[in-house]
Structure prediction request, 259 residues.
Amino acid sequence: MANLTGKVAIVTGASRGIGRAIAVRLAKEGAKTVLCARTVGALESAVSQIERDGGSAISLALDLRLPESPAQLAHFAARHFHSIDIVVNNAGATKREAFLNLADDDWLDGFALKFFGAVRLTRAAWPHLKASRGSVINISGTGGRTPGAEFAIGGSVNAAVQSFTKAMAELGVADGVQVNVINPGSIRTGRLQKRLEALAVENGTDLVAAERKMIAATKTTRIGEPEDIAALVAFIAGPEGRFLQGSMIDMDGGATKTL
Prediction:
């Protein structure tokens, strides 16, 4: 297990799915966690879960698409816990749709949260991360490396996040900040559940059969769990993962076939 005792970690998109699992795991490893998402009730539920397990957490409901919100989040974390050691840029879902059905607003919205939210939060937190020799972990996605026609926005945004990671990793060498990116594959979240339900209806099967079909079609080992990604985040941010710098890690059960 990673030892993150006394570290301060910001996790965006932390009210559910991968982000919530990351926040819970970092708190379990001893980090003081700052959770951010848009839904107050879901955030409060996540904080309560962490506190029941003996961890320390606070939350702030913000729309990180708004230009001023990331700086507010960094200031909130630093004011409450007096430092920032870990930033996990996880927030951001993009519209999956046929390309010709996507409007400009769909593209702008996709970049506003996942890309610009990450850029702005990283910028706002960087002085604190430099002082603490901290870590930035961006949660991107396999679509950035293997784009698909119905995931044009997501693939483009993920590729931008991956490129941003590489750029910041170079600056991080000079400033003592660790910067890496994880590309999750198919993870058991609410969005994946909807895709499985649609696949089951399309094929006239149940969810178990739909999941087997998805695994077979992608030639992967299984569907991932949010906790899988959370465990990798904890390792990277911990002392044993410190040599990772500018690394792009596909955690996808073998979905990415390219070199």
